[in-house]
Specification:
Radius of gyration: 21 Å
Number of helices: 12
Strand content: under 5%
Number of strands: 0
Helix content: 55-70%
Length: about 250
C-alpha cells in the first residue's frame, strides 16, 4: 500500500504554513535556542530551504512564485478589509444602539450576523461572503440612513470596492493552484517529513511561549493554515489524491 499523507491540509497550504512558522522561528531564534540548543546554527535556515525547494520538487509547480505572490496580494487586501469591516461594525452598533431591532435588521441584511465573527478572525471565505453580501444589499437608501447617523462616509464605498478586488485576487490564487500532476509516493514521504518536523517545532515552541498566548498561537499549525484563509482543509489540489490521515494533537 502506498504512502499516505499525514496531514489533512492541501499540500501547498501545508508547505506555506510550515514556511510561515519556520520564518517565525528565525525571528525568535535567540529565545528558542536557549531552550533547545540543538536548533542553533543553521537548523532553521536549512529547514526553510527544504520547505521552499519542496514547492517545485514535490508539488511540481513551476509557478510557485506566482502562487505565493498571489497569496501575498490576497493577504495584503484582507487586512485593510478586515480593519474597515471592524470600523463599520463598531460604528453601526453604537449608532443604532437605541434601536436594536433596526440594528439587527441591518446586520442581517449586510451579512454581519452570518459572517462577521469568522471574518474578523481572518477566515478568507467569510470575508469574501460578507463583502459580497454587503455590496449586493447596500442600497443607496440604506447607505444614506447609515451615513446620516454619523458613519465615516468613506467606509461604505471602500467596503463595496474590496469585494471585487478581493475576488480577483482570490481567483488569481486559486487558478495558480490548478492543473498539477499527481504527487508521487516519494514526494508524499518527503512532505510528511517536513510536516512532522514542523509539528514538533510547534509543540515545543508553544510550550516555550506558553506565558504569551499571542506568541504561542503563532506556533499553532492549525491556526496558521486557517490564517491563509483557503479553508480547503483536506481538499486536494493538482492531483494530490492520497487520502489524509489525522494530524497529531497540537
Amino acid at each position: 500500500m502506498g504512502a499516505k499523507k499525514e496531514f489533512t491540509y492541501a499540500a501547498f497550504d501545508m508547505l506555506t504554513a510550515a514556511e510561515t512558522i519556520v520564518n517565525q522561528c528565525i525571528i525568535d531564534k535567540e529565545i528558542i535556542v536557549k531552550k533547545r540548543p540543538s536548533w542553533g546554527d543553521s537548523y532553521f535556515p536549512t529547514l526553510l530551504n527544504t520547505i521552499q525547494d519542496a514547492y517545485n520538487k514535490h508539488l511540481h509547480i513551476d509557478n510557485a512564485k506566482e502562487l505565493k505572490d498571489a497569496t501575498k496580494a490576497l493577504n495584503s487586501i484582507k487586512e485593510p478589509a478586515k480593519n474597515d469591516l471592524s470600523s463599520f461594525n463598531v460604528q453601526l452598533k453604537n449608532d443604532f444602539k437605541d434601536n436594536k431591532t433596526r440594528l439587527n435588521e441591518i446586520k442581517n441584511t449586510l451579512g454581519f450576523t452570518s459572517y462577521y465573527s469568522k471574518a474578523s478572525a481572518g477566515v478568507q471565505s467569510a470575508i469574501l461572503n460578507l463583502l459580497y453580501q454587503f455590496k449586493n444589499n447596500m442600497t443607496d437608501e440604506l447607505a444614506a440612513e447609515i451615513n446620516a447617523k454619523g458613519m465615516d462616509p468613506l467606509l461604505i464605498p471602500n467596503l463595496k470596492g474590496y469585494a471585487d478586488t478581493l475576488k480577483a485576487a482570490n481567483v488569481t490564487q486559486e487558478s495558480a493552484k490548478k492543473n498539477r500532476p499527481k504527487i508521487s509516493e516519494a514526494s508524499i514521504i518527503a512532505l510528511n517529513e517536513i510536516y512532522n518536523s514542523v509539528i514538533s517545532i510547534c509543540e515545543i515552541c508553544r510550550n516555550i511561549f506558553k506565558s504569551d498566548p499571542v506568541k504561542s498561537d503563532m506556533y499553532s499549525f492549525t491556526k496558521t493554515v486557517e490564517a491563509l484563509g483557503n479553508n480547503n482543509g483536506g481538499n486536494n489540489e493538482g492531483g494530490d489524491q492520497t487520502p489524509p490521515t489525522p494530524p497529531p494533537a497540537q
